[in-house]
Fold this sequence. Notes:
Blueprint: H1 2-10, H2 17-25, H3 29-54, E1 60-64, H4 66-78, H5 84-107, E2 110-114, H6 127-137, H7 149-164
Parallel strand pairs: 1-2
Amino acid sequence: MADLFDEIESGKPAESRAAKRSRIFALSRVEIVLAIAFIAALAWGAWVTRALVDAPPRQELVQLQLQGIVGEYLQAQARSGKEQSQAARETAQFMAVLDDRVAALSNSGKVVLVREAVIGGDIPDVTQAVKRQVYAKVAMPRIAQPQSASATAVHNEMRGFLAAEGAGDDAGE
């Protein structure tokens, strides 16, 4: 009945209950687009949050002068006067221990860069620590002293040559 009185007073036909109900749930196109954008923003935010929480920890970069360590050992081994087979065995053992130390650094979450690959930046150098660890397991070869008379003669001859050329006696030592 109230609808009839409203219709008479306003001069417009009263809306039916179904029309009123559909108008309450009806959304405009702008409202639909905004609702979709809001849902998409929530989904994206959840995805970003999960990606940040599940991200692996940042790895630390370290530098190692690998060429220097290997070169130093090989020079000492070459001057040690040891037989070739023994020197080869010791060098293989040295290389295996060095490889283990580099692998241990990598397994601890560090990315090992050879010093020659580092152009700039402040990257910690682990060369001395690795050398100490390797030489704790493998002895550094000792340089052999010349024991033959011919080696001493060659040494004296070189000193004489350098003295004659004007380099002086202390240049050969």
